[in-house]
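step: validate -> pass
step: tokenize input -> pass
step: predict -> running
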Amino acid sequence: MAKHPFNLAVRFLLELSAIFIMGLWGFHISENIPSILFAILLPLGFALLWGIFAVKDDPSRSGKTVVPTPGIIRLILELSLFAAATWMLRDLDYSNVWWIFGGIVLIHYLLSYDRVLWLLKQK
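step: predict -> pass
step: emit ->
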């Protein structure tokens, strides 16, 4: 199911949403120049972590990686970044939105059980 086009599209939209959420949260945690810096640096940090640390030959990605990462570490990284984005929505007091976003992330990972199992087997 992880390679199903719909599930890949959902995953991509979750990634884009998390990047946007981190920028939004970064903008609101401070004022003036620091808010702009946080709004730029937090999403950039997310994108760098997401793109650099990957499992070699991951079928849900291009298969290429900058830093080959064990599957369990990649899974923890993904879940941590999505959990951070969910918490940021809650911190911004978007009470309904954080439930929806977190729920979609959970459903996505449940439907991607084959990828999760594959990640857990990767050293």
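step: describe -> The first helix runs from residue 5 to 28.
step: cleanup -> pass
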